[in-house]
Amino acid sequence: LREITETAGVHLGVARTSVWLYNEERSSIRCLELFDARDGTHSAGLELRQPDYPRYFEALATERTIAAHDAHRDPRTREFSAAYLTPLGIGALLDAPIRGDGRMLGVVCHEHVGPARRWSPEALSFAGSIGDLVSLAIASHERRRAEHERRRLEAKVEHAQKLESLGVLAGGIAHDFNNLLVGILGNARLARDELPPTSPVQELLGGVELAAQRAADLCNQLLAYSGKGTFVVEPVDLDAVVEQMRELLEMAVSKSATLRQHRGAQRPVVLADATQLRQVVMNMIMNASDALGGRQGVVELRTGVVDCDRAALDRARLGDGLAEGRYAFVEVSDTGCGMDPATVAKIFDPFYTTKFAGRGLGLAAVLGIVRSHHGAIDIASEAGRGTTFRVLLPYADAAVRAPQPTPAPGEWAGTGTVLLVDDDDVVRTVGQRMIERCGLQVLTARNGVDGLQVFEAHQAQIACVVLDLTMPVMGGGPMLRQLHRIDPGLPVVLCSGYSEQEA
Predict the structure, then answer these.
(1) Residues 357 and 263 in one domain
(2) Looking at residue 56, which CATH number applies to its domain?
């Protein structure tokens, strides 16, 4: 547009050439580009409202050009005299409407500073051509903008599909991983129980259990990222969650870092799973500590309640589908290295990490948990200036239940026969040994069809069935329905390597 206004201004010998476009309501026009030939400057921003200049706007809608030889006397333009023409010293106007897609888009104005001026037929024709040229330029710009937006949306959809595929993969891996861990942890526990407490092998088996438990934690992160982790939704006070974790959080930050905690005036209550919220807080705190890189710095943890409008939610990750309103938040900020925009764009991608020894699952798991709780994450970061993560969760006006103490497990022994049905050999073997340690007899089967045959053959002895949900030939669901038809009062324990929600 600058080239057009400069060329038109020189050709017509006018001091000011400008391009004005209608607003969406078509109630005013705003200056998009103004070239002043006297000093070679460009500016924009002026606005003219239709109610203030009705004759001029009416002429724009009906005429090819508005040639006001004497702008102060022309009935179409004299409305501008006091507020526009006289202060700027304009004596004549030659304006050409901009039309496109069958409607008025705006106007190109050629303003002669000085006395009245008679415009030649050639000048009128040239001004009309300039209006057409600006229309083409606007159309070209809109096409480029639409193409850019299309590509942006396609990239967003493609990225979402990739993350969804990774989520499905992560959930499947976690299921198989859970079955393997049952064998590792179960056999290690059985072996330790067979050995005297003073055996040197106890320490070795303890190391096996510890490594397997860490693998289970990694499995939980995979499930959290995939959005299929196990969780129990209830009213949770974020302040209470943070308070319960205080000692752990202080241990999680480096010795050179200072952890500061701040609470808002209002209790931040949400409907959520407290265990997964603890994972969110811990991952963000550890990420903030790592950002300090061992240097002295501050990690701040804030909780509170905030009212979010549309702009605030659209700015946050996962926020575009959420409703405006009140949200509880937990926010972690650091004075560390910060991130550039390119890093911020990828920070939640699974397996992306800026750490030498990182797995790239911490923030991906946070994103999965926040997504499953219908929340959003706002990030503010600048290279060299630190980072702030704010997790927003829908505020819940509900009472928080006091935590109930969990009774310690004790030794139990009994008599009877249990039918164990599972397609995984390792899970079936470990499960059989553990049940037999309780004094029970165990019958086994590898799928629902075999399980029904064993049950029908030994129905009188079987007191309980332990049943895997996902098996070939016949799964746990169909077998459970068959068992209840045969014996409606039969106790059945359902097991799965998947989460409760997915199972």
Answers:
(1) yes
(2) 3.30.450.40
